[in-house]
Amino acid sequence: MENVIIIGSGPAGLTAAIYAARANLNPLMIEGEEVGGQLMTTTDVENYPGFAEGIMGPDLMMVTRKQAERFGTRFISQNVTKVDFSSQPFKMWVGDKEYQSKSVIISTGASAKYLGLENERRLLGRGVSACATCDGAFFRDVDVCIVGGGDTAMEEALFLTRFAKKVWVFHRREEFRASKVMADRVLNHDKIEVVWNTQLVDVLGDKAVTGVKLENVKTKEVKEMPMEGVFIAIGHKPNTDVFKEFITTNEVGYIQTKADSTYTNVEGVFACGDAQDDIYRQAITAAGTGCMAAIDAERWLDNQEHA
Ligand code: NDP
Predict the structure, then answer these.
(1) Domain assignment of residue 268, given as a range
(2) pLDDT truncated to tens, each residue of the chain (307 aa)?
(3) Per-residue exposure over 225-242, b if at least 16 CB sit within 10 Å of its own CB, e if not
(4) Which residue has its alpha carbon closest to ligand 1 atom 21?
(5) Could you tell me the distance, in angstroms and rounded to a whole number, from the CA of residue 147 to the centre of ligand 1?
(6) Domain holding 202: CATH number?
(7) Catalytic site includes residue 272
(8) Total structural domains in the chain?
(9) Residue of 46, 117, 175, 234 to test ligand 1 pocket, by largest number of atoms within 8 Å of CB
(10) Catalytic annotation, pick one of 131, 151, 202, 278
(11) Are residues 157 and 255 in the same domain?
(12) pTM for this structure?
């Protein structure tokens, strides 16, 4: 029987682990198959306090993981496949193996969204990607495109200019959602061309991507363009499906936490990071709520013992 199981290993989960371990709770982290979460697919992180010159996302996560390990966190590098939060002790399964815990911290984060086109899925990994940082270097001296208008799209477009001959940005409106500083960098980059009011409606290619089909959402004009790489950057979906029978979420799937806390609707189950935050979604806010979750869990466990 564990005191606390932390599910998910991004900045939220790892910070929760550091605090829980230092509070002598001997936490077990089920860190998932994508260890380190979304920052593992980022390059420079320039806005995480404490790193005046910036730090690479994977480096930040690995050093944070080491910090959690130093205080005794134990790790299981697999995904939770089933949970039962209907009664104490809480039960979680990784395949056939069952784990039991008095308290749970959910920090499963969010994953990239796709457009939902059949050929997008078929050609995933064959020219279609949702991670420029992971796959950008495969596209040297060819034309690639980004779909989306948020900060992720801007960041990925700028990153791709290191390799690609030309980077096209297709956005469905005529204004970016991204912050002005990022948008300006994209708009002023001589390797990037922005095409407004444009939706990607198909990805072309047999064994690998050879082109895209685009629709102008205003004129409805459809045209094809040769393209070798298609990067989808249209936001993220919280990884909370496995909990939804027990844990209350909003309509998109973000876990609802009680005001000024990380308490979910189930007493003893706490949630932090991007799994519950659809507003800020930053590494530092995730880390902050991870700290809150560990303190909430520690105090809750303490109250149970003294009840
Ligand atoms: P966002 O939700 O901010 O942006 C998603 C973009 O994709 C929007 O422009 C949206 O268009 C577009 N989009 C959504 N669905 C579709 C669709 N079906 N077809 C075409 N386009 C679509 O997600 P991000 O991942 O960009 O950013 C998430 C959060 O993370 C934000 O708060 C962002 O600021 C932050 N972030 C910060 C960074 C930094 O500070 N360095 C880096 C990366 C992210 P529309 O605008 O029309 O809705």
Answers:
(1) 2-111+236-306
(2) 999 999 999 999 999 999 999 999 999 999 999 899 988 866 678 889 999 999 998 999 999 999 999 999 999 999 999 999 999 999 999 999 999 999 999 999 998 899 999 999 999 889 999 888 778 988 999 999 999 999 989 999 999 999 999 999 999 999 999 999 999 999 999 999 999 999 999 999 999 999 999 999 999 999 999 999 999 999 889 999 999 999 999 999 999 999 999 999 999 999 999 999 988 888 999 999 999 999 999 999 999 988 7
(3) eebbbbbbbbbbebbbeb
(4) 148
(5) 10
(6) 3.50.50.60
(7) no
(8) 2
(9) 234
(10) 131
(11) no
(12) 0.76
